[in-house]
Amino acid sequence: MNNILIKLLFFAGMMQMSFSGIAQQKSETQKPLKVAIIGLVHTHVHWILGRDKLGDIEIVGIVEPNRKLAEAYSKQHGYSMDIVFNTMEELMAKTKPEAVFAFNTIYDHLKTVEFFAPRGIHVMVEKPLAVNIEAAEKMLSLSKKYHTYLLTNYETTWYGSNKAAWQIINDSAKIGAINKFVFHTGHQGPIEIGCNPEFLAWLTDPVLNGGGALTDFGCYGANLATWYLKGEHPLTVTAIAQHFKPQEYPKVEDEATIVLTYPKTQVIIQASWNWPYSRKDMEIYGQDGYVFCLDRDNMLVMKKDQKQKVNFKAEPLDAGRQDPFMYFANLIRGTIKMEPYDLSSEKNNEIVMKILEASKQSVKTGKTIKWNEFYKN
Q1: Mean pLDDT on 239-258
Q2: pTM
Q3: Of 29, 104, 260, 361, whose CB neighbour count within 10 A is largest?
């Protein structure tokens, strides 16, 4: 299978998730939100570039100094090179976005917020929020100071199965008190699935990405666990990381496991660039049963009074909340409300960054990190 086909398959699921069930819906916003794209080097950018025009957002500018890459995507998706600028300064001189979506390196998220927040422009970045907790705190401080949104986008936020699992575990009659979450996230490896050179150049760099598989896929489980546990932070963080493929990934780990302990719950996050196939699934165990989210739609539920597990498909997410772009537009317009520890929220992703930071420290020292000692403030 050639690299182009692999990449198309890689994004097909994400695209289908965005368009499924929403192509015939009208946006809840009264007028399109004027947005700009900052960077094209994160290939999740195909999600917004290839998205149907639903009338909720209007792309008014793109910042990407790599003209060859911008031209290639222009041919693929049909946008005009007239809206492509080399710098954020050039963008602002020509157009006035209300919000920006960052598809640059994780390291450049801080620069993006430093530029746009003082101008009152809202920012959504791709996961994780930042390369480290220091950068994250600076970004969050700027967002708070200038009263702008700073959201983090995860593909799994838009899975109907995760919302259905929330409803099940918050109904105490379903599977009882929750005592364990297990998250499996990752794929065969960014080289193996055919990521382009512009993506690989920073994704496999410990400075530009903040790490390897641990940050790339460990953040998913940390994000979902924080949501399910309603903002509770762990008591301890223990992590191990390994290099199974040092020839392909000499600078960063390609295998990581994070174990989080809470007063009555354990969370296990298995983040890997070594799975035999792409996966973002989870298992939730309660005293009286379990819920498995197999993918964005399909689930298994087993209760102790049943003789066999039940297979079912999750309902689509609520209108206006079915992909990051409509969600951000509706949030800015005030037609929907974000709860404090929602998956995209600032508070949730501050905890995510603290979990990742403690995980890296655990890997470095070979010790379990006690939360209240590591974060004394």
Answers
A1: 98
A2: 0.92
A3: 260
